[in-house]
Design brief:
About 75% of the residues lie in helices and about 0% in strands. With about 250 residues, it is an all-alpha fold. It has two domains: about 100 residues, no CATH class; about 120 residues.
C-alpha cells in the first residue's frame, strides 16, 4: 500500500523509475525485521503461520535479509537524491524502531504517523527543486497511517494483551474498551477520506467525493456491526483512501 502511494504520487521527475523499488525494498525490510524481532514471541504463541516460528527459516537468515533489503532501499533513495534519501532513512527508522520495541509503548502511533505522513514528502522530493508537499496531503497520509494502526490492532487485542504488547491502541482498549479502538479506527480512516477530498482537485474532485461517500457507508456498517465485519469495514475504508491517493486527483504540491 505504501509503495503504491509513493509511486503514484511521484508522477514526474527522474525518481519515477526508482521510487517504487526503493519503497518496496524498505517495506519488505520492515516486514522481515518484524518477523525477526518477534520470533521468540511467535514461537511461544505457537504461530505456525510465521516461517521462523514454524522452523522454515532461521531467525538469523531473516534478520540478514531484512538488513540487506533496507540497505537496498536506502541506496536507491539516495540515488534519486540526497533529500529523498534522508526522508527515506527517517521513514525506515520509524518502521524499524516500531518493530524493535516501540510497538509496546505510547510511541507506537507516532511511528505510524511518521512512516505514513512522510510518504508525500518522499514523493515530492523526487521532483525538480524538491518542493514541499501540501499540508493537507501530508495530514491525510498521516491520519491514514494512524487509522491503519488502530485497525490492524483491533483483531489482535486479546493476543497482544497476553503477549505484553502495550502500544497506543492496546492502551486505549485497556482504559476504555475494544469497541473504542474499533470506533477510533473507523473515525481516523474516515477523516483521512475527508482530507483527501480537500486535497483533490480538477475533474477528479467528483471521484474523491464518491470515494468519501463509499467510505461513510463502510464506516456506518463497521460501527453498527460485530465480529470481523468492523475490521473488514476499516480495511475497506483504507483501500478507498489508497485508491483516492492513486486516482483521485490528489494534489501533491
Amino acid at each position: 500500500m505504501i509503495t503504491l502511494l509513493a509511486a503514484e504520487a511521484a508522477s514526474h521527475g527522474a525518481g519515477r523509475a526508482l521510487v517504487a523499488p526503493a519503497m518496496l525494498a524498505g517495506q519488505i525490510s520492515i516486514g522481515w525485521s518484524n518477523d525477526a524481532f518477534d520470533a521468540g514471541r511467535d514461537a511461544t504463541a505457537g504461530r505456525t503461520d510465521k516461517p521462523i516460528a514454524a522452523g522454515a527459516v532461521s531467525r538469523r537468515a531473516v534478520a540478514v535479509a531484512a538488513v540487506a533489503a533496507v540497505a537496498v532501499s536506502v541506496l536507491l533513495s539516495f540515488a534519486i537524491g540526497a533529500v529523498t534519501g534522508i526522508v527515506n532513512v527517517v521513514m525506515m527508522a520509524a518502521g524499524w524502531a516500531y518493530n524493535a520495541g516501540l510497538k509496546s509503548t505510547l510511541a507506537s502511533g507516532l511511528m505510524y504517523i511518521v512512516g505514513f505522513g512522510l510518504i508525500p514528502a518522499f514523493a515530492a522530493s523526487t521532483l525538480p527543486g524538491h518542493p514541499a508537499p501540501r499540508p493537507v496531503t501530508v495530514a491525510a497520509a498521516a491520519v491514514l497511517g494512524l487509522g491503519g494502526h488502530f485497525a490492524n490492532a483491533f483483531p489482535d487485542l486479546a493476543g497482544d494483551k497476553e503477549a505484553g504488547v502495550r502500544g497506543l491502541p492496546q492502551r486505549v482498549a485497556a482504559i476504555s474498551s475494544p469497541a473504542i479502538v474499533r470506533l477510533t479506527a473507523l473515525v481516523l480512516l474516515l477523516l483521512a477520506s475527508g482530507l483527501l477530498v480537500l486535497a483533490s482537485g480538477g475533474s477528479h474532485h467528483w471521484l474523491a467525493l464518491t470515494g468519501l461517500g463509499a467510505a461513510v457507508l463502510c464506516a456506518v456498517v463497521g460501527a453498527r456491526s460485530s465480529g470481523r465485519l468492523p475490521f473488514l469495514a476499516a480495511i475497506g475504508i483504507a483501500a478507498i483512501d489508497v485508491a483516492l491517493f492513486a486516482v483521485g486527483g490528489v494534489t501533491l504540491t
